[in-house]
Amino acid sequence: GAVVSQHPSWVICKSGTSVKIECRSLDFQATTMFWYRQFPKQSLMLMATSNEGSKATYEQGVEKDKFLINHASLTLSTLTVTSAHPEDSSFYICSAPTRTSGSNIQYFGAGTRLSVL
Amino acid sequence: AQSVTQPDIHITVSEGASLELRCNYSYGATPYLFWYVQSPGQGLQLLLKYFSGDTLVQGIKGFEAEFKRSQSSFNLRKPSVHWSDAAEYFCAVQGGSEKLVFGKGTKLTVNP
């Protein structure tokens, strides 16, 4: 299957700082990528859809000024958590769809655990 | 809007026993259906998918799932569970957009 690389896998930062998470599609191009947030022992909640060359589309209730998304190339999307606070601590996962015969399959990165002190 | 229900939060089985994880979906048309597995602290790995055609689909690691339109279900099965199958399992549905909607997940514990 396709490979999606996510970096870093774990980051600890001080409250008030910003953290950037990268999501790369290694062996395919992705005009769209998705960012999810997962709280402990819970399901994945879609935060936003990252669109190459245009603005991201955010889900209801997600602060676009806090979670900045940039999709500058067909293989890279970044999520920046700005002015992070302890409540932003979570597991963030990205995915990228591959398109085959009109349908698509999403492949997921390994996730980034963010701990804000 | 589509939704997914996984009724079982936690299931425990003995190694070698059979397994069935339940998934019910809500969507107006025929959806695309997926099962993913997540090990602790890891991303999601695709086990299998249903798009159309044969309603019994085979996946990796010996898993299979059956799409039953009349019951709006897509249950995951494995005839003999291995200790390495212990993980969190997510059922997901994809409707008209590319967005995936996930169930809340079922945690599988395997006893020796």
Quick overview:
The complex is a heterodimer of chains A (117) and B (112). Chain A is mostly beta strands. Chain A has strands at residues 4-7, 10-13, 19-25, 32-38, 44-51, 57-58, 67-73, 76-81, 90-100, 103-108, 112-116.
Instruction: List SSEs of chain A in N-to-C order.
Output: EEEEEEEEEEE
Strand content of chain A: over 45%
Report the radius of gyration of chain B as a whole number of Å: 13 Å
Spans of chain B of at least 5 consecutive residues whose pLDDT stays below 50 are: none
Largest interface: A-B, 25 and 22 residues
- Proportion of beta-strand residues of chain B: over 45%
Which structural class fits the helix and strand makeup of chain A?
mainly beta
Structural class of chain B: mainly beta
Shape of chain B: globular
Distance between the termini of chain B: 41 Å
Mean pLDDT over all positions of chain A: 92
Largest sheet properties of chain B: 6 strands, mixed
Protein described:
The complex is a heterodimer of chains A (117) and B (112). Chain A is mainly beta. Chain A has strands at residues 4-7, 10-13, 19-25, 32-38, 44-51, 57-58, 67-73, 76-81, 90-100, 103-108, 112-116. Chain A is built from no helices and eleven strands. In chain A, the strands form two sheets. In chain A, strands 2, 4, 5, 6, 9, 10 and 11 form a seven-stranded mixed beta sheet that branches. A four-stranded antiparallel beta sheet of chain A has the order 1-3-8-7, with no helix packed on it. In chain A, a hairpin with a 5-residue loop joins strand 5 (44-51) and strand 6 (57-58). Chain A is globular and about 40 Å long. Chain A starts with a strand and ends with a strand. With 112 residues, chain B is mostly beta strands. The mean pLDDT of chain B is 93. Chain B is built from no helices and twelve strands. In chain B, the strands form three sheets. In chain B, strands 2, 5, 6, 10, 11 and 12 form a six-stranded mixed beta sheet that branches. In chain B, strands 3-9-8-7 form a four-stranded antiparallel beta sheet, with no helix packed on it. In chain B, strands 1-4 form a two-stranded antiparallel ribbon. Chain B is globular and about 40 Å long.
